[in-house]
Amino acid sequence: RPSQVQTILGLVMNTIARLVGLKEGFAAELVILLKELIVAIQDLEDATRLARAQTVMGNVIFGCKLLPRLASLTANLQDWINGSKKEGRVEPELTRLVALDINCLVRFFGIGGKAGPQVGLDRFVGNFRTWKIPSFTDARGWEDGKSSVLAGFWGCSTYKPKNSLCWSISYPLFLARLRSFASSRLLLPERPTIAYTEFLAAITQVGCFTEMHDQGQINLKGVEIILRIDSTNTIGWIKKGKMRFSPYNNLCIYLLAVEVEYNCKFTPVFVKSEDNKLADALTREFAGKRNLVTPHGVMYGIGKPSDRVFNALAKFLIAPTQSLAASGFY
User: Fold this and answer.
1) How large is the greatest C-alpha to C-alpha distance in the chain, in angstroms?
2) Which of 108, 38, 42 is nearest to 72 (CA)?
3) Is the distance from CB of 75 to CB of 242 less than 8 angstroms?
4) Which candidate, 124, 103, 119, places its Cα nearest to that of 41?
5) Contact indicator for 152, 204 with CB cutoff of 8 Å
6) What stretch of H or E contains 228?
7) DSSP string covering 161-172, please?
8) How far apart are alpha carbons 330 and 256 in whole angstroms?
9) Which H or E run includes 39?
10) Any idea what the Cα angle at residue 311 is, between residues 309 and 317, rounded to 5°?
11) Rounded to an integer, what is the distance from CA 52 to the centroid of its chain?
12) Residue 301 and residue 267: Cα distance in Å, rounded?
């Protein structure tokens, strides 16, 4: 009779309890290494700190197989390693951010003691029920002297479902709304490139979905939502779970928190611009309008993301590790 517990490539799968964890002792040893690294990176006289950081990075990357979006907590450490290699030193602020990230990793890998943390088998293999209606987002760049615009759509062209999303907002107003919750601590640029506004639109759409769940309009539990996006950069960042450009990477940490809290999955899929017509229209001919009319004559009221959505994004942009803890992640 096959054992209910199988160890495969360092991962332990309990087929009866439907849980997946790391080989016994791995997480506990990693916690020790992480704690030692916090001390080492702050000691300018420690000649071993770069080697320690590289060793820990390798172990953490393996540990992230358990929960791939944990990679968002390694972006600053990778920058620290790269900076140490090239210049022999890094800015104190980056070291501080790395220490905060490491503390989060310590808390996660410290769950469960010697056995370490476990995740559900369904999450590990991506066994979620996929929504039939995908999400679409888009952004327009700074064209013809006009402001950049972000937009999101979730609905149908031929009929209007009971619940839907349809929003459009100029980037200057988007930034102002974020700053109203984050004050001067928010370090987003005044005129980001199109790749970043596409990313912001997709993450804002995620925030809108969580609000709909909290209001009882939809149920995200056990669901996979397809995010159709016409930006390969945005798709790459969301798939990898991290990006090297702070503070945008903080929103990858936000995505980690959302997927764990709501037990759902957001999967980015490329869509050609010509197949992203409604989201594109919200950034162009329908930008600033009250209603969107689909090619089949279906009308959607055009709104804007709520204060609740902007508040959630702002919290992660200015204090990602504290916000992750407050989300109940551990």
Assistant:
1) 71
2) 108
3) yes
4) 103
5) yes
6) strand 223-229
7) -SS-EEEEEEHH
8) 12
9) helix 26-41
10) 105
11) 27
12) 26
pTM beyond 0.90, yes or no? yes
Other beta carbons within 10 angstroms of residue 8's beta carbon come to: 8
**Cβ atoms 313, 178 nearer than 8 A:** yes
CA nearest to 99, candidates 82, 84, 77, 75? 77
Per residue in 244-293, pLDDT (tens digit) is 888 899 999 999 999 999 999 999 999 999 999 999 999 999 999 999 99
Backbone angles phi, psi at 115, to 5 degrees: -70, -30
Angle between helices 171-182 and 307-318 (to 10 degrees): 70
- Tracing tokens 């700074």 back to the chain, one arrives at 142
Integer CA distances (angstroms), 198 to 121, 161, 206, 318, in order: 32, 25, 13, 20
| 304: nearest Cα among 210, 189, 190, 171 | 171
CB 148 within 8 A of CB 142: yes
